[in-house]
Amino acid sequence: MSRFRESKELRASTDVASWLAAGLVLARVPTDDEALVASAILACANELPSMPPPGLVADVAVLLTGARLPMLAPVTGDETLRAAIHAYDDDVLARLVTTARFDDVLAAFAHLAPTERPAAIALVVGALVERSGFQGMSISPATLRRALARPRAERDATGRGELLLPATAARFADSYLRLARGARQSRALVDDREVFAIDHLAVLRDFGGRMTADHIAAAAEAVAMKLPRRLPSKRDQRGAKDTRMSDDALYPAGGFSSITPGGASSGNIENLVTSELVYMDPGEIVDLFSLRYMEGELLFYTRDDSVFRRHRHLIAIALGPDLDDARVKDRGLPWQRLILALGFLVASIRWLTDALGDDALVIHIAFPPKLLGEEREILALLLEGEIARGQVVIVEQPWGEAIALAAGASGAIADAVIVSLGATPPLPKGLRALHINLAEAAPTVCELAPRPATAPDATGSDPFNEWCDGAEDLLRWLV
Fold it and tell me: What is the pLDDT of residues 172-225, one digit of tens each?
């Protein structure tokens, strides 16, 4: 039996060198870029909890550079290893390159700088290994680095000699069979999560950041599934405010139905459609503007107030500095309390931007200064669509300033939402404020102003349902 057959951890440098050499000989996609393969293997050793066969890392690294999957020749030697490699070719490599999102992964990878590519390769390999349920070898990155420094010819000779040993061939056959079996049972080897992570590799560079982003996204999706589709609106009872014209655009609205020939509308010069003027020929002597003006064929449009009569709604969400202590895992909950709180907010914000999409809605999220920096960057990625549309603003700001922003909003409905482990800032008079208290495993949602309410007792047997009920209470209070 091979000297590294039974152990799940390789420590001796000779064992690591033999395992690496034998594994790279089994790589199926040829490459001359030894530096890329070596850096990808080291990135996997630093990122992943256990190492898959080195040949898998080399194959993924080459395929991500845009190489086509070649006609793969059968492996010579041990029959069991040959059958395992054949299954790996069909169920891992062939399935990977034909996965619907693999082309998107290639496009995202192509835009990366060379220094970022090893981390992206480790990301894709990690996703493939996780979805295959594969458990590999634990190897020291330092020992692996020394093994990779050996000359390629020497390493190849060592690897071919190792594969002649029945125990070594059996070990790699078992690894490739487990990879193929797990990949065969996986619905997709890569999907939108890998595309998202590679596109935002500057923020999600390490495994911890990607895991945090995945957990927040999963928590948001789980909470969103429990939220109602619609809720009755009470904005008219609260004194709805209209947007000012300058808030939306400087251009009138109404579409083509409001465009009329010259003279049919007011005919003011400010209503003139001047787009025709860009089509004047360089050699044209007659001024097209003057000609159309004299013939009365200039187009005018009428102003329509419908777009500008939108309710302005400012929601200031202030996160307390004590949330840095909310990284605790409560019994009966799938994620940490802080992860659940951020997923709770993401689900609620997406619901609000969808339900109140016709309003001039701005959700201002204030993170405590010098705290929760990674979570703030991840939340900005998860809500980048809402941020691009101007519906969400994420800043690093003391919660007192966020409360003052809501209190000073003029001509708009203004609400303040405070999220903390119990503490709350001073509230100005006349501001509507709600407190989401995360002091316990299940959150409590109660109004602080203008009518302070007593926090309800969390009596539910399922703490996650209490989180979903709290999100619904928040939405009912806001709309």
Answer: 999 999 999 999 998 889 988 889 889 888 888 777 888 888 899 999 999 999
Read off the tokens for 294: 């004299």
Rounded to the nearest 10 degrees, how much is the dihedral formed by the CA atoms of 157, 158, 161, 167?
-150
- The amino acid occupying position 400 is G
Q: Which two tokens stand for residue 140?
A: 């020291």
Do 42 and 118 touch, CB atoms closer than 8 A? Answer: yes
How far is the first Cα of the chain from the last one, in angstroms, to the nearest whole number? 68
Output the six-digit token pair for 111: 């835009």
| Largest interatomic CA distance in the chain | 98
Q: How confident is the model at residue 283 (pLDDT cuts 50, 70, 90)?
A: low
Provide Rg for the chain, Cα atoms: 30
Q: Compute the distance between CA of residue 223 and CA of residue 343 in angstroms, rounded to an integer.
A: 7
Query: What are the CA-CA distances from residue 203 to residues 39, 45, 257, 386 (Å)?
Result: 20, 20, 46, 18
Query: Structure tokens of 305?
Result: 């107030």
The length of the chain in residues reads 479
Q: Render the burial of 110-125: b for 16+ CB within 10 Å, e for the rest.
A: eebeeeebbbbbbbbb
Q: How far is CA 137 from CA 9, 29, 45, in A?
A: 5, 22, 10
Residue that the structure tokens 């001039």 belong to: 360
**Weakest mean pLDDT among 91-100, 190-199, 233-242, 295-304:** 295-304
- The encoded tokens of residue 195 equal 């595309």
Q: What are the two backbone dihedrals, phi and then psi, of residue 301, each rounded to the nearest 5 degrees?
A: -130, 160
C-alpha 232/C-alpha 18 separation (Å) is: 68
- Residue the block writes with tokens 């203004």: 414
Task: Report yes or no: 227 and 347 within 8 Å, Cβ to Cβ.
Answer: yes
Instruction: Kindly state the average pLDDT of the residues 53-70.
Output: 92
Q: How far apart, in whole angstroms, are the C-alpha atoms of residue 191 and residue 214?
A: 13
* DSSP per-residue codes, 100-148: TTHHHHHHHHHTS-GGGHHHHHHHHHHHHHHHHT---BEE-HHHHHHHH
| DSSP designation for 412 | S
